[in-house]
Amino acid sequence: MKTTREFAKAENQKQLVTNLQELLVKNYDANKGFKKAITEAGDPQLIEYFKVQAFMHHRYATQLDKLIHSLNRTPLEEGSAVGRFHRIWIDVLLAISGNDDKTIFEECKRGQSATMKEYRTKLRNFKFPEEIKEILKKHLVELELTLEEIKEIKDLK
């Protein structure tokens, strides 16, 4: 029978893995969304931005995957139903707008904002081990910086 301390430790480990899995799924979804945006966008600067974002989210997913493995758990292997629906919604919007770069960008920005919100919420509401917390904070700072960089891209028509 587990002691109270052992039970609490196991529960904390379970919550840690759950939080990391949820961030992993967000990054899978973001990576897929940006890859889709690459194929739909026309503006070369925007395409390059989307490529960087897709790579960045792939890197985050890889880091989260390794963290989950280090906790002796099996990482999830795919994105969420919400992410799939968002990509379908983008298809609908593009059909209506005629593959407008601004529409693509706005939806990617909305998805990116949701990812940043998820990171902020997790960091605020869960006490991660310090080394994991630092990795997640770094992800969040990079996400915020790249969203700011997009302002340098010329006005989308």
Structure description:
It is a single chain. This protein is mostly helical and 157 residues long. It has five helices and no strands. The chain has a single domain, classed as Ferritin. It has helices at residues 4-40, 44-70, 81-97, 101-125, 130-149. The mean pLDDT is 83. The termini are far apart. Helix 4 runs antiparallel to helix 5 (130-149). It is 80% helix and 0% strand.
Question: What are its keywords?
Answer:
single chain; 157 residues; mainly alpha; Ferritin; 5 helices; elongated
Task: Give a short synopsis of this structure.
This protein has helices spanning 4-40, 44-70, 81-97, 101-125, 130-149. It is mainly alpha-helical.
What share of residues are in beta strands? under 5%
Structural Rg = 18 Å
Main sheet makeup: none
CATH superfamily: Ferritin, core subunit, four-helix bundle
As a percent range, the share of helical residues equals over 70%
CATH topology group: Ferritin
Please, what is the oligomeric state? single chain
Topology, pairings included?
Elements: H1 4-40, H2 44-70, H3 81-97, H4 101-125, H5 130-149
Helix pairs in contact: 1-2, 1-3, 1-4, 2-5, 3-4, 4-5
